[in-house]
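Homework-ish question, so no full write-ups if that breaks the rules, but can someone show me the predicted structure for this set?
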Amino acid sequence: MIRTACPLDCYDACAITCDPSYPTKLVSTPAHPMSNGTLCAILNKHMHEAPRIEKPRVKGLEVSMGEALDAAATALSRAPLLQWRGSGNLGVMQGITNILIDKLGGTLTHGSLCDGAGQAGILEGRGYNRQLPPEQIAKADTVVVWGRNLTVTNSHIIPFIKGKKLVVIDPVVTAIAKKADMHLQLQPRSDFLLAVMLARFIFMENAEDSEWLSEYAEDYEDFYEFTQGFRLVASLRSIGTDLEDMGELLSYLIGQKVVFLLGAGPQKYSNGHFVFWAIDSLAATLGLFGKEGCGVSYLGNSTQGFDNPFEVDTERVSIVTTPFEKFNTVLVRGGNPAESMPDSSNVVSALRQVKNLIYFGLHENETSALADIVIPAKTFLEKNDLRFCYGHHYVEEMNRVLDGDMGIGEYEFVHAMFDRLELNGLKDEQSYLSLWKEQCKVANNYLVLPDYEEIPYAKGFGEDADEEFVFIDDYDDDFNIKKQGGKYWLLSPKSPKSLNTQFARGEKVLISMNSGFKNTEKVRVVSPHGEQVYHVKLSPDLRDDCVLIYAGSIGLNKLTPSMASEEGEGACYQEVKVTLERVEQIAV
Ligand SMILES: Nc1nc2c(c(=O)[nH]1)N[C@H]1C(S)=C(S)[C@@H](COP(=O)(O)OP(=O)(O)OC[C@H]3O[C@@H](n4cnc5c(=O)[nH]c(N)nc54)[C@H](O)[C@@H]3O)O[C@H]1N2
Ligand SMILES: Nc1nc2c(c(=O)[nH]1)N[C@H]1C(S)=C(S)[C@@H](COP(=O)(O)OP(=O)(O)OC[C@H]3O[C@@H](n4cnc5c(=O)[nH]c(N)nc54)[C@H](O)[C@@H]3O)O[C@H]1N2
Ligand code: SF4
Ligand SMILES: [Mo]
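A: Not a homework solution, just the prediction itself:
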């Protein structure tokens, strides 16, 4: 039996056991603490069935791998050079191409299409984002699922929240909301006010944890004053809630061991970092850090705490507003910027201006269709790697299961470029893998991240655990809802069938039952940035002021704004309201 792990961009990073005689039959490693005995259909069905790019191409013609690598080497030596790296595979060896770009004096990206704004908010308060081990979640009394659609995106956490009091804060009636003791179906982009109001009520009821606060977060009185700067009635109205709801919500928080499971949803806005800083400040008011069964969980930076051999000091441009047109050569690796970046019509125009666009990936997509050079990758089963995870602290070795006769691994690609361009200094693959692995810790016989702590922040905040928690003390938001024009918020949570733009992608817009539209129609969804036609699917799970198009749906990002969050250089996919126009009646 060979052990590997799922490479897909997912909170769970499932451990996999593979019988080399049946290499396509992937089975969840039974004893692994994060396994509930199953792998999901995204991996075992959709990825398994997805056609791969079989042959390399140069200018639309199929060529041998040797010819494609020659063409790539020539292109990479034409400055200015940019690498745009996506998250199609989360094995750590994916980072090896950074070394190549650095050697060639090229540019990399900074910021995030994913969790950047939230991460920035967490760093403001805590100085260092430590992952909350699932074992602590299992010890909570109350679990608050705050903008994380965990049934779809993080299903292996479900056994850890079983039997808890469950509160869900989400504008959509998600599957987990249907099971919750309380669901607050708040107005999108109102989480900041909700966190501030909850904290204010906690102070008003003298329910703050003053003993913990005086030791770890002394400035809490200033925070109380800060919360009083927001008008109560107007804030509750903006959230779409009332005093009764707030009272019920507080009853789940006060005097309990509480865990907040934060997801990407509440931070897809320009104020995303303030939202997470405010939620952390609420958690600190309740003294939820450094104690058993308490804490705030969010996507962690899984290479944090390592001495990173792929860390290079190059120029960087934003991954959210990338100026592709300024580069002669662009290497797109493991991603699909032509669909996954916001304002994708303008992204496509900019990518068309690039003289040498190299696409290095596993599947055809909108970016491979634009590329001058297409290099097929190997799948995770065909290469050695290590899998770190943003949803838990366990590290898995990814051992090669198959040899594979198409595509090239990332290390092999870099090696081929070093040879062709006569560069030196590349170590052998195993040395890099060992460098990473040697830095991991071992806990309960499992390899874990180096900064793993059983109870995070038990000694304090910051990287060295010698700092206090810093409460949010300013808020600056010039978003004007009225300037948005449209009637509906455009929500784009993750899809149960696709992994971002990989696999079975959506072509529907979900609309509230009260909208006046019918399931048989198509509508044109129009935003200030573009438009796209979708089939209507009426849903009882949406507020009347929201529509929902799953992330990864075709053309979705024509509708979203090219802007980065105020902090963290995060994408603001949901900072937009749209209108709907009837297109035609479809025969049934
Ligand atoms: N509107 C909207 N847009 C969003 C989001 C949203 O919520 N709303 N979410 C955003 C988020 S959170 C993310 S993370 C981004 C993701 O966006 P991207 O990082 O662009 O990811 P994908 O679109 O899934 O493209 C992944 C590609 O990686 C390639 N690939 C897979 N495995 C390998 C491999 O082993 N090697 C190589 N070289 N390539 C491989 C595949 O060919 C695949 O096409 O999308 C963002 N886009
Ligand atoms: N099946 C599947 N799994 C995936 C992925 C996938 O594409 N498909 N993608 C992976 C990736 S890249 C990521 S980053 C993670 C993200 O996974 P999650 O953290 O679950 O993020 P999302 O699905 O984007 O949104 C989560 C929830 O936020 C809600 N939401 C939207 N706006 C707001 C708001 O203003 N306030 C609040 N409180 N909630 C809001 C949405 O309704 C949704 O239920 O999932 C990973 N897992
Ligand atoms: S749940 Fe996530 S990590 Fe597990 S098999 Fe599915 S996609 Fe992979
Ligand atoms: Mo993501």
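Now go work out the reasoning yourself. Hint: The radius of gyration is 24 Å.
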